[in-house]
Amino acid sequence: MGSDILNIFVSALIVVRRFFLLIFYPYKTMRKISLESDYYQIGIILFLVFIFFKFAYFLRDKPYPATLIFFVFLTHFFFTIFFFYLFFGLNRKKMRLTSLLFTFSYALLPSLIWFSSTSLLYILVPPPRTFSLMGRAFSIFFITFSLAIAAWKIILVYLALRFSTKQSFYRIIFILVLYLIWFIPYSLFLYYLKLFRIPFI
């Protein structure tokens, strides 16, 4: 029991450290993550996502409980991993499913940061927001911040696929396009059901 707690603590420190390393050294860090085997790290990241859903549930009127939203997230998270594993793994028998699992878990960090930040801003600067100088400055800041997070997310997803599958740039882009073909209608379906305005992935 004591050793498990220590292992979880050490894994948590590794997650925090790699969070910052993924900002400044994404290429080198994601390559190391693709070789990882410490499943506590995945558990910690998914636990943080669960905590976010619990936190966000109390901010707005939610027709669905946070636990259900979390399980919906887990469904499309693991489906995404299996999607890429099946498409890339057909020609690469040595490709490790665990590599995709670890890299895509860490690729959740930009999403976690963005969704958590927007939730906090919802509390600190609640709508409606004015067209004053401060309001415009906030809008510019938020758009810039969102674009930076989106760029970071795209980089991490690409690197996750690059190091997990060892495929070329063009093949990765091609498979990503195929992924978006089903993911975009799926996102609209979730929006229609009021499960997610923006899918957490």
TrEMBL record:
Keyword Transmembrane carried by entry: yes
Transmembrane segments: 6-27, 39-59, 65-88, 100-125, 137-161, 173-193
The organism's place on the tree of life at top rank: Bacteria
Keyword field contains Methyltransferase: no
Keywords annotated in UniProt: Membrane, Transmembrane, Transmembrane helix
Protein name: Yip1 domain-containing protein
Source organism: Candidatus Roizmanbacteria bacterium RIFCSPHIGHO2_01_FULL_39_8
Classification of source organism: Bacteria, Candidatus Roizmaniibacteriota
